[in-house]
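Much of our argument rests on the idea that a fold can be written as discrete symbols. This step matters because it turns folding into a mapping between discrete strings. The record that follows shows the chain in one-letter code together with its fold in token form.
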Amino acid sequence: MEWTLETPTHEFGGVSSVRRTLPVTDEQLAWLRLTNVELSPRVAHALLLRYGTPARIFAAPPDELAGVPELSPDQLTRLQDESRIPTDKQVAAFEKLGLTLIPSDSPDYPMLLREVSDRPACLLVRGRLDDRDNTAVGVVGTRRPSPYGREVATSLSRDLAEMGFTIVSGGAMGIDAAAHRGAIQAGGRTIVVLGCGLDIPYPALNQPLFDEIVENDQGAIVSEYPLGATPESWRFPVRNRLISGLSMGVVVIEAGQQSGALITASTAAEQGRDVMAVPGNVDRPGSVGTNALIMDGAGLVTCAQDVVHQLGVTVHRIPAEDREAAAVAELSQDQRVILAHLGLIPKHIDVLAAEVELTTAQTSAVLTILELKGLVRRQPGGTYIRTL
């Protein structure tokens, strides 16, 4: 089917009148257009804070926009450029791939990424993100791993996924692909962060892997870049901050002295996330970066339990299904509800009480029982995590 845009009626080029046969909303069109402009997160957030929505940004008079201090003349020109209006090809790709748009003020925006100052104003998502992805670990490394590095990436990611962690990586050949594959093998979840548009088949050899993630509902492919954006070299270092931003911590497996994985480790440290590394053979160039990270204070990782220890959480492997069902069957309704609201990320008792609609005293009493049963564990600062 053909999708067409009518000539915009506003002199500034706002998409106020459209004719289409694909179910893409005007709000989505405005977000796609803002993505096409490729503003920095700082400028995009400043405009959204001032105007509220992309549609209102594009409806604003040019002289008014020119007075926005964060907006440079070049960025103003790009905002006015009607070639940035979503094309038929972009809209068709959006629909064909079943993409969603998640603005940074949406409750669906990833919780960990929300804490990052230069987070994207909007994420394009293929597949599905859910609350489980708030417990995530980034696993990154070289595109040309040794057999040892590939095996470590696969087994470590598989073990972490079995513990309930979502594995985040960049979708590249090598360590990234092995990490995604390990999570899938465990029946867990994984997030691929691309350095190009979601409609660009890059890298081509990993497309079956990405399709499997989406088709099996085991995670998502995400990008901040416009549809059609090619994998230019400058995009990947910028992309790397999202890998660390979506993760509680980042594990580097085999990275040379100039590896992009080291950029991810650097952004993780800047974001206050844990940085970890798997030691490598001292005579391999691919181990120079990881061994240097360990010498500089990164957490040394030899197994999944090392990652858990570094993150400061207490977890166990997911028990057999019948054992879990038996444990939950013995609980009261309040105990089940509270247990369901806890995960691997420590949650304060006051927040938990508000979520389950009980008083703090009632919640505390239930937590005490669950703690005696070994199902939850108290953490510093009046917070709790689930151990089952």
About this structure: The CA atoms of residues 277 and 315 lie 20 Å apart. Residues 1-21, 318-323 have pLDDT under 50 and may be disordered. The chain has 18 helices and twelve strands.
